[in-house]
Every structure is written in C-alpha cells, then in structure tokens.
Design brief:
The chain is α+β, with helices and mostly antiparallel strands and 834 residues long. It is built from 25 helices and 23 strands. The strands form three sheets. Strands 15, 16, 17, 18, 19, 20 and 21 form a seven-stranded mixed β-sheet that branches. A six-stranded mixed barrel has the order 4-5-10-7-9-8. A hairpin with a 2-residue loop joins strand 4 and strand 5. The longest helix is centred in the middle third of the chain and has 38 residues. The two termini are 40 Å apart.
Length: 834
C-alpha cells in the first residue's frame, strides 16, 4: 500500500507539471465514459431493472394468442383475456396467484377540479400477488373483488398522491369522482411503484368489479363474459418452482378452460373450433413487467450502446497514442531507473497507476457528462409518463458501471504503453541517441495500427449515422396522404364526465359549430381514432359479392369521423360524396372507403353503391358505400397501406373520446388557448388533452427515429474528431522524429511540394487501410439495423460514399497541418537536431 500511495503521489505530481496533457486525456475519457454511462443508465431503467415488488423473479406474464370469437379491448401490447378465463386460471391451483388489470383513461375530480389521469382497473389480489404494502391506509383485498358495482373504493398512486394532495395523510376517507363515479380513497400505493408496465404511470387504482361504472362507453358489463377479452394477466410461481416446472400443468388447465370457452361460442367452422382448442398459454418471465416502451426502444438502445462502446474504444486508442508519445519522452528517465536496479514490473505498475488515475478522473467527470446527457434525452421524450418514470440521476448501479468502465478503460489504454515504455534499449538510450528515444520502430508501428483502427471504427459509426439519417429523411419526405400544415389537434372525452350518448352527440356538434366560428379557423372536424398516434381500430366484415377464403384477413381498419373530415385534413375525395349532418343515428348506415379497400374487394372498380356488413354471422349488409377517398397514412408514417373504412361518428354506438382537427389560416399554436376557452364555455369540468399541431404530432411519432439519427450522428462526429486527433498526434510525432531526414532532403534540393507529398502519402496509406477495414464492418452494422431503416437497405451507396469522403476529408485535414510544418523545416536547424 505504501508503494501504491507513492506511485499515486508521483502520478499526481507528473500530471500537475503537464496540465495540458492531463486535461486532453481526462476530457477525452470523460466524453467516452460519460456517453456510455448515459446510455447504460437509460438501458438499465428500460431493459434491465426489475420491478420494485417482492421477489420479482417469480412473476410471469401470460398471453393467449390465437383465433378467438368476440371482441378484444387491447390497450396494452399483450393479448388480453376474458374475465372468466382469468378467474379460471386464478383458481386452477397452478400458480401461487394470478392478477388481472386493465389500463383506462379517467377524469378525476377532487376539490372541485377535474384533471385527466391514468387509471388501472385491478383485481382484488393485485397488490397481494405483487407482495406490496401500502404507504398509507390499506390496499385492495379479495373482499373488493366479489360483486360487480359494489366496491366504490380507490387506491392512489404514490406519485399522484404526492403531486395532487401534497402527501397529506388526510386523503384517506376522502371521496373522489372518477369518470362520474364517486369512490372513497382507502389507501396509497408504496413509493417507487408506479404500475406494472414501464411507461404507464398509474394515478389511481380501481377494483375490476367497478368496470361498468368506470368504463361507461362499453355496452355491457364485461364481468363474466367469455366473448369480451380485456384483461392483462400476470402470475406468481409457487415457491421453489420454475417456469418449466409449472408449464405442463398450466397447459392442462388452459386446455380445460378453452373447452369451456368454446362451449359458449355459437357457430364457427370445424376448422376454427379445432384451431381454437389448439391454442397454448404463452408464459414469459415477468420480473421487469410488460412494457410497450421497452419493446419499442430495445433495439435502438442496444444499437446506441454498441455505438458509444465504439466511441470509447476510439477514445482509448487516442489516449494510448498520447501515452505512447509521452513515454517516448520519458525513455531516458526509465532507462536510468532500470540501470539503477528498478524492476520492469515495478515501473510498469507505476505507469498503470498513472493510467488508472487518469481513467478514474475521466470517469468522475464522465458522471457529470452522463447526468447532463441523460437529462437532455429524458427532456426530449414525447411521453410525459416516460419522463416521470425515467431519471438521469445516477444510482449505485450506474455509479458501479461507470467505476468498472473506468478501471477497465484505464487498464485497456495503459497496459500496452506501460509494457512498451519499460522495454527500452538501455545503451543507446543512455547515450541520448535520437533514433533510440522512441524505443525503436515497434511502438511507432503500434501507434499507426491504433490510428488505422480508429479510422475503421469511425467509418463504421459514420455509415451507421448516415443510414439512420437517410432513413429519417425518407420518413420526413413521405407524403402522409393529408396536409399536416396549419392543422391543430386536441382531444376531449365527455363520456368520462357522465354524458350519455345523446348528450355526447349534442356536445360534439356544439363544439364543432363554436370552433368553426372562431376567427382564424377555416374548417374543423373530428375523428374517433387519432392520426399518427400508433392507434387503430379494426372490425371483421363481410363484403357483398365477395367470397372470403378460409382464415382470410377480413379486418379493415375503421374510423368514425365528422362531416368535413376529408376536406379539413386535405384528403382527396375521388368519387361519391362526403358525410353530412343527415347521416345521423337514425339514418341508413353509410361508409366511405379508401383506394386500397376498393382494390382489394372490388378489383379497383368504383365502390360507390356497394355494401358490406360487420361480424361473421349471416346478418344483413348494414353499410352502403357512398364515397371513395385516396390512400393515406393513419397510425404512423411507417405503416403499410391498409384497407380503410370511414363511418359517421354519429352512427357509433359506443362513442367515447373524439379528436378535433382544426384547419387554421394563422399559426395553429396561437389558437390553442382560445380552443381551451371554447371547450370550457361548453363544460368547465371537461379536460382538454393532447393539444398540439399536427406537425408536432408527426415529430413525436418519429421520436425514436429522430433520437437514433441524432445520437448516431453525434457519436459519428465525435468518433471522427477523435480519430483525426489521433492521426494528427501520430503524424506530428512522425514529423518530429524525421526532422533531420527532412532537413537533409531540403538541403539536397528537395522541393517543398515533394516534402508535403511525402507526409501526406503516409496519411493517405493509413486512411486507405482504415477505410478498407471499416467498409465491411459498416455493411455488417447496416445489415444488423436494416429492420429499423425505412425506404432503404444496408447497401445504400450514397451513404457509404458520403461517410468515406467525410472521413477522408477529416484525415486529410489532420495530416495536412503536420505535413505543412514539415515543409517549413530549416535545414541548418534540422542538421543540428538531436
């Protein structure tokens, strides 16, 4: 320990004497370690971290994919179950416990103020299965899960309790109004637990048995209905049992329940019934909980983690080059110490201590860089819930990662310089011969190899950045099929305020009229399914005159819209007519279809006047097609063209929220406050949510693509800068070592252009070798991320050419300065150079 303390003191004195060298090394390492720590912090929270519940490794996620009969209310990325299927699995004895839940948007009124909040309908054993204890009051029990509509109680999320009620203990026993249903607060969920799905922050928990009261738009009670699938399930394994241990018994229990389910199905072909009984219960580890945010961001995060890892490798190569250059100036010192009896291992350890000290200093500064970078990333998130869940503040796991990475980095970039520096040629070095000061040609060749590696890795990153950037450009240039400029959008849901169907229709009609009368508004319309929100609604149909094949996809997307929808959005009407106010609840049911619908079912013929119906039964063809519109994007810019049928919203029997689209003659953002006033004039208790311009909505829908493109471009530029600095350092050292040779050449009559070409030729060789090595790696990276690209593939020649030219230009600039300095060598000075 005494020797280590002595080595540390020597290292600190040496760094204090060379503040410029120290600052460059620490800053280089801070950028590399900080970028890696920032991405790891997000990846840890999104991909790796377990839920803060009791023994999360025992939890499993359940899914029941396959054919089904009935309706599916899927507000999660998981396949839901019916309530009878849940109770059957819960009571099967296979699992220690099975919980059920269903996310639901709520209007929550407390203290006379109504806000838009996130609710979760949960089974009575929800908190028990998770092994949670209340922060205040009590949590739900089996007694809250017995009789439909008889349990008007609520548990608040800890974050919501803190934000809305100031963490007051007096909240217990208070009455909240949730979707026009009075509920009594009985408890507060524990701190740190924000729900079972990452990215879905729950404000209030309500018993499943209150479904009919809290989800007023559903036409009937879903409790006990085999045909309505709406619950997401998770289970806890028995103590001492693994997933494979319970899988056979779970499949047996599920098969029995499928038979019971099938008995409740009327009709259906023999092929359907056989396929229905062959379904298997899908079980997946659930310790991290299900998460659409995780599924969406997993590949981009892994790609970014790989890219910042390459940036750190380039930074390490740069620092190793600097240490080798510094070691060359310390050859005489090291040779003297070896001649006086110091062991090579002792000197190597001292040099490693210096490297580790630099690395730890870079890691400490890197934590600051990571916090700053992580904060910027989280602020850029389009999801407010995700921004609440994620944090840029480092915890012990992130700090441990940064420390381990710093140590690994210190050893990685310090080991080779330490070994090279402690192996000098003693006699020539002690005589101070200039040719021996570098320790021979082997270290210099190694430094050139590091530069080649830096160039190759930089090219790989530039190719990746180019592919992601070009993909984003393709998405931005895509015609969505409507005109997004001068368009304001917002959503209201009067059904959650207790409005019956007739009152909803009346309120929407009034709001459309009032908004249309506002100055600066050109037109206004509404839609049931909001555009560019990755949402869709589909229904099975039968088409008159079209014979569907067995198991053919007969599920086009539907959207209920108001009159003037197509004119307001700028969607071209190709044939027939638009909807009018005459297409009301009592009028004949009509529809407008898109070109893809007409191509698929009518071979491109004019569909106006044709009919189709919903459902698999033999019911009448209820809908008459009255119009044809051009194709366009709906859920996202990435979606493939789908068959679409639009219906009047006034003919929607389960009408809930509608999204308004306001075409303006002025900046749409300016009209936002006025739109809120219009809604408040109609109902002061009705919250307005998701108000933004359509351009902003499209940008949010492209968030992952924009984030990956921006970060990969930043990492590519940083890597190129580091590689250029490394090349500059090597060529500067090479010029200094060849000063005498260059002076002799100039003295013998060599032109300065020839000297310039001599140095640049070496730069060109290093850059060319790096490019030749980097191109196959770039293609491999392109193939790896090809699924994330849009409108292009991994062989895009423009991207490869642009990345190569950018890197060669950076290499030329990095090598030109030392080459120019070489042309200015004074022959008389050079001939005396030692």
């Amino acid at each position: 320990m005494d020797e280590l303390r002595q080595d540390l003191r020597i290292a600190l004195r040496a760094f204090a004497k060379n503040p410029g060298f120290t600052a460059v090394v620490v800053a280089t390492l801070a950028l590399g370690i900080g970028a890696n720590t920032a991405i790891f912090g997000l990846m840890d929270q999104v991909l790796l971290r377990l839920m803060p519940v009791h023994r999360p490794e025992q939890l499993v996620i359940l899914e029941g994919p396959g054919p089904f009969s009935g309706s599916s209310h899927q507000n999660s990325h998981l396949v839901p179950f019916s309530h009878p299927m849940y109770t059957g699995l819960r009571d099967s004895g296979v699992f220690q416990g099975v919980l059920a839940h269903n996310f639901v948007g709520v209007h929550l009124t407390a203290g006379g103020t109504t806000t838009d909040a996130r609710g979760d309908l949960v089974s009575g054993n929800f908190f028990e299965v998770l092994g949670l204890e209340p922060a205040l009051g009590r949590l739900f029990t089996a007694d809250d899960d017995r009789v439909p509509g008889a349990h008007p109680v609520a548990v608040l999320g800890h974050g919501f309790w803190t934000r809305r009620f100031g963490a007051s203990h007096g909240v217990i026993g208070q009455t909240l109004v949730v979707n026009n249903q009075p509920l009594t607060v009985v408890g507060v969920a524990p701190a740190g637990f924000q729900g079972v799905e990452l990215g879905e922050v729950v404000d209030v928990y309500v018993p499943v048995m209150m479904q009919a009261q809290v989800i007023p738009t559903w036409p009937s009670v879903a409790i006990g209905d085999w045909r309505r699938r709406w619950l997401t399930l998770m289970a806890r394994l028995p103590d001492g049992r693994t997933l494979e241990d319970v899988r056979p018994a779970a499949h047996v229990a599920y098969a029995r329940l499928l038979q019971e389910d099938l008995n409740a199905i009327s009709g259906g072909s023999e092929r359907f019934r056989a396929a229905f009984l062959k379904k298997e219960l899908k079980m997946m580890p659930g310790g991290r909980g299900p998460s659409g945010l995780r599924d969406e961001s997993q590949t981009p995060l892994l790609v970014l983690m790989g890219m910042v890892g390459l940036v750190l490798l380039i930074a390490c190569a740069n620092v190793a080059n600097l240490l080798l250059a510094r070691a060359s100036s310390r050859q005489k010192e090291i040779a003297v110490r070896l001649a006086l009896g110091a062991s090579r291992g002792r000197l190597a350890r001292q040099l490693l201590v210096e490297s580790l000290t630099l690395a730890l200093a870079g890691g400490a500064l890197g934590m600051v860089v990571a916090t700053w970078t992580g904060t910027l990333l989280i602020r850029a998130l389009p999801s407010a819930e995700a921004a609440i869940v994620l944090t840029a503040d480092p915890d012990l796991r992130v700090a441990g990662f940064a420390f381990a990475l710093s140590v690994l980095t210190g050893v990685g970039f310090g080991l080779v310089p330490a070994l090279q520096a402690t192996r000098p040629h003693l006699a020539p070095t002690l005589k101070s011969e200039s040719t021996a000061l570098a320790g021979g040609t082997a270290p210099f060749r190694f430094r050139k190899g590091l530069v080649v590696a830096q160039i190759a890795l930089s090219l790989l990153l530039l190719i990746g950045a180019g592919l992601f950037t070009r993909s984003l450009m393709n998405l931005r240039a895509l015609d969505p099929g409507f005109e997004p400029d001068q368009l304001l959008t917002f959503t209201v849901d009067p059904s959650l305020n207790g409005y019956d169907l007739a009152r909803r229709y009346a309120l929407y009609a009034r709001l459309q009229q009032d908004v249309s009368a506002e100055p600066g508004v050109k037109s206004v319309s509404m839609a049931d399914v909001a555009l560019m929100t990755d949402s869709n609604s589909s229904t099975t149909i039968r088409v008159e005159g079209y014979e569907a094949k067995e198991e053919e996809d007969m599920n086009p997307n539907f959207n209920g819209v108001a009159p003037e929808f197509f004119g307001t959005l700028g969607i071209g009407l190709l044939a027939g007519r638009d909807f009018t106010d005459a297409d009301g609840p009592q009028a004949p049911r009509v529809a407008i279809v898109n070109e893809e619908f007409a191509r698929y079912f009518y071979k491109g013929e004019n569909p106006v006047g044709r009919r189709f119906g919903t459902g698999r039964g033999k019911s009448d063809f209820q809908f008459t097609i009255v119009g044809l519109v051009r194709d366009g994007k709906a859920a996202s810019l990435r979606e493939k063209q789908v068959r679409f049928a639009y219906t009047p919203y006034t003919q929607e029997p389960n009408l809930g929220a509608l999204t308004f689209y306001v075409r303006t003659a002025v900046d749409p953002a300016v009209l936002g406050p006025r739109m809120r006033q219009v809604v408040a004039a109609a109902d002061p208790t009705l919250p307005v949510r998701e108000m933004k311009t359509m351009r902003a909505q499209i940008r949010e829908s492209l968030f992952v693509d924009r984030l990956v493109a921006a970060l990969s471009a930043a990492f590519g530029c940083l890597a190129t800068l580091l590689a250029a600095l490394g090349l500059y350092a090597v060529m500067s050292h090479a010029v200094s070592q060849r000063t005498r040779e260059i002076g002799i050449r100039v003295a013998l009559g060599a032109e300065r252009r020839a000297v310039l070409a001599l140095v640049l030729k070496e730069v060109a060789v290093l850059a060319a070798v790096g490019v030749l090595i980097g191109l196959p790696g770039g293609y491999g990276l392109g193939r790896l991320v090809e699924a994330q690209l849009f409108g292009m593939n991994a062989r895009d020649p423009l991207t490869y050419a642009a990345a190569t030219l950018a890197l060669l230009a950076a290499a030329f600039l990095a090598g030109y300065v030392p080459a120019l300095r070489a042309t200015r060598v004074d022959p008389m000075v050079a001939l005396r150079y030692e």
